[in-house]
Amino acid sequence: MSGTKKLIRLVLLRHGQSVWNQNRHFTGWSNVALSAQGEEEARRAGQLLKQANFDFDICFSSELKRARDTLATIQSEMVLEHLPTHRSWRLNERHYGALEGLRPWPAMRKFGIWPVLKTQFYFDASPPLLAADDPRAPANQQRYASVDPSQLPLAESMRQVSKRVRPFLHNTILPEAKQGKRLLIVAHKGILRVLMMQLEGLTGAQVMRLSVTTGQPICYELDETLVPVNRYYVGQ
Ligand SMILES: O=C(O)[C@@H](CO)OP(=O)(O)O
Prior knowledge:
The protein has helices at 19-22, 36-51, 65-77, 104-111, 113-121, 158-178, 189-200, 204-209; strands at 8-14, 58-61, 85-87, 183-187, 218-222, 228-233. The chain has one domain (8-95, 154-233): 3-Layer(aba) Sandwich (Rossmann fold), CATH 3.40.50. The chain is built from eight helices and six strands. α2 (36-51) packs across α3, α4 (104-111) crosses α5 and α6 (158-178) packs across α7 (189-200). The site of 2-phosphoglyceric acid has 11 residues, from α7. Residues 14, 18, 21, 26-28, 93-94, 188-190 line the site of 2-phosphoglyceric acid.
């Protein structure tokens, strides 16, 4: 810890369980809802943060319903509905390409065991691509009409995810933290992994082993140079 200097707090949260998490479907950019358990996890996360006396100045979420709904529930539990909220496609989950909507076994039957397994274990492995004219491709969705289509994925390796999250972390999130703002970021497993990677300087292999549970707030305490000095699960 850095003596009497004030630490900057940053809270990361994976959304509550979604209906596709429940049934073990690859989800990615598919816009599915929270399950009943996920809604309860979101309420519980808000209560935990409130009981632990957390307060926030700005909230961030992905464009995806499961993260947005989780954030809205937390804000309601903490009576923080008035806070500025920044949504970005750069915080959307890793795009799982043609695997989206499939469960692991059907995916392996369709694409082969190794092509599916390696996407889960190797930082550089990309899932099979969606066809560019697939209506599910982000460039074909009205929701992303304001984004340069050349930036929108048809599938992503974790390295590609890390590359698109990096400018958002360094140009949008960390400058707010540097000003002493208290930040809450609600996103996804893959996104939290690469945020943790960039905050802590982890390797690709370490990132693939990080476990990130739904609905469990992770607090980072950063020194004034934005170096993490502490990381813990709130309420544990
Ligand atoms: O998209 C998915 O399949 C899962 C795991 O990567 O992500 P999340 O439930 O965190 O959105």
